[in-house]
Amino acid sequence: MRSNPLSLLLTVLLAAAALYVALPLDHLPGLESALGTPEEPRDLRDLVRGLDLQGGTQILLEADLPADTEIPEGSMATARIIVENRVNSLGVTEPAVQGQGTRRIIVELPGIDNPEQAIETLRSTGQLEFIDPGDAQLLSGYIINTTNRPTASADAMAAMAAGVMDPAPVPFPDTVFETAMTGDVLNDAVPGLDDTTGLWQINFELAGDGSDQFFNYTQANVGRPMPIVLDGVVLSAPIINAAIRDIGVISGDFTEEEARSLAIQMRYGALPVPLQVVDVRTIGATLGQESVSRSLIAGQVGLLMVLLFMLVIYRLPGLLACLALGIYVALNVAVFKLVPVTLTLPGIAGFLLSIGMAVDANILIFERLREELRAGRSLRLAIRTGFNRAWPAIRDGNLSTLISCAVLFWFGSNFGASVVKGFALTLAIGVVLSMFTAVLVTRTFLQTFLTLTTGVESDSRRLLVGH
Amino acid sequence: MGLLTSRMGNAAIVERRNLWFLLSLVLILPGILLMAWRGVTGNSLLPLSIDYTGGVQWEIRFDEPASPEAVRAILLRAGLADTTAFQVQDDRTVQLKLKAIDNQVKERLEGEIEAEIGPFDEQFFRNIGPAIGSEVSRAAGLAILVAVVGILIYITAAFRHLNHATRYGACAVFALVHDVLVTLSFISIMSLVAAWEVDALFLTAVLTVIGFSVNDTIVVFDRIRENQRRYQGESFARIANRSLVETLQRSLATQVTALLVLMAILILGGATLQQFMATLIVGLVSGTYSSLCNATPILVAWEERRFLVKAGVADPAPVPAA
After folding, report:
1. Mind giving me the DSSP string for A165-220?
2. Following CA atoms A431, A437, A442, A448 in sequence, which dihedral angle do they give, to the nearest 10 degrees?
3. Domain range B17-43+132-304, CATH class
4. What is the CATH number of domain A56-280?
5. Residues 6 or more apart whose Cβ sits within 8 Å of residue B64
6. With an 8 Å Cβ cutoff, are A407 and B128 in contact?
7. Fold of the B55-127 domain
8. What tens digit of pLDDT does each residue of A138-174 get?
9. Do A393 and B273 touch (CB under 8 A)?
10. Which of A84, A123, A199, B277 has its CA 20 to 30 A from that of A33?
């Protein structure tokens, strides 16, 4: 077997790249903006820390409907977007809102350790109002004050100034528009097609006692706009064509999506499905900080002991394995940053455990190497057969661990046990990378060692590998 | 020979299988009997954490030393009868377990605790609805089943060229069931000794143990696969024992490195992961043990149709040390 300069070059380049990404330094702006977006380049200096390491609150919301109720397609997605908007209004840095399965939404609020107020904000049913615009020309998307929400403009401007809300027009900061009716008057609202024009519209139905009120108001205001406002945001500003009793229609230049979304917002206030809180987890910032420092120490001590053990038992190959392990750790950290993997406490445990797997691959190879040497083979041949014979065991063993990881990951993503997911993910990444480093890095190192020591007396070379 | 196995070259592991089977029974039985007792007396087999039952786990750290009993008294007065309270870490930190509560109740309790005992920081708060809990329980059982079946299929496929490939898969599965039982037995005893509960991380530990246990078994079986080609004509028991001895050094070395890492986290990693790490350690040690002393001897017994070794019957000679 000839030593392969190409694989040595590849190993060195890979190690350098991994170290570059893994180390906590300022990275090339090109790399950071390529990973994120040009406007928001990804910060590669630190690993993404989970809530249990930085402190904060995780809230699991679930559709508050019987389990056998089919939830209309897209309405959980709509609910998620609405929840996300509300989360943004809380002024939390880097919140996360994710759908989970078909009935749940996970909300993560780093740094929030009094979740009560946040939960109230998330769950509140939005306030739908029909308002009297006076002489103002109100367009959808405007944020305005109403009798029921007299501070909507000021709140929105404060949130925009704090950078937690996307810019939106606030054209009448000082006017308070009169609320004509609230959403209670509505019984139902569905999207539909106009029979004659073929355009999308919203058909709505009024509730028993609301219909008189609606009739009186629309009768008095035919020809004027009647903006529909949700939590201070104008959804639509239809013109009243005729007095409406029982049922009515909002027509306009709607796409199917717009009509559906407007109907949902009219029907449910804000949330297309009622949500209940099924799991709240709060971790104080001090506990998170303690966890970080403790797991750092534990990881360093563990790694150091493994390195010592490998050196004592396997001598030179042990040293090579330590180098390979160093590259392995750098590769792992680099992958964590690039994906990015949110690191949790069980996630760190999974990563450290995967170090054991990486060492195992090396041990399997070295044990084989020694056996082949004992069987009287030359060092060169022993290295080759050692690798070839160790590989099936490494492959089969690691694949069975990956099967476990896949099951754990599925379990963790679909149920309330999200702690499990972080562990499965880091262990799986570690297992895959450990196979990779065993094959490429350790092998290349051994081959290079062989080339470098050509000419050295064969017995001393053998001594170095611990035969 | 390597440092770890210098005295073990002559070990006739397969021959001593009676001893190993007995040892496994001794390890497994007490905990399982304890579980059975809990079941008979109308409890869940193992004490389940709120991950599975739903409820509240709440940890608060006071500015001054405070007694868990005083906190518990406040909660009892509020009508939360099933509340338990105990000290964790230091004399200022109190952990509470109670049934699920809503926000208003929590805010009121916080006010009362602060007024009567003193200011505190919330370290950890978890509130799970009972529906989620029971769903997690069902999914946990399913997860273990899926993992076991997946591994059985994989091993059978990996060893398909050998005679009786399914036996290899079945023996690997037997070994991992053994490890799951040892782990269950351990947590069952610890629940009695140290009030441990089965949480989501326990399931993680069990599934990880399954993965690692199979890993060890595969290394030995892989060697049997290879040695069968190399030593044709030798008895199966002899080939199996040879394979065990040849892979012993690796199995122990791997075990030691994994234990070094896990021990470091157990001792230095803080309270959150302690139970998880201890369970993993027990499971991994059992995993290596069962691969060597259960999976392979059972495979031999199956091939020989002779499960227990009778005294006086000549068994294949041990492999001479290399």
Report:
1. S-------TT-EEEEEEEGGGEEEEEEEE-TTT--EEEEEEE-TTHHHHHHHHHHH
2. 170
3. mainly alpha
4. 3.30.1360.200
5. B92, B118
6. no
7. Alpha-Beta Plaits (3.30.70)
8. 888 888 888 877 888 887 787 677 655 667 788 888 8
9. no
10. A84
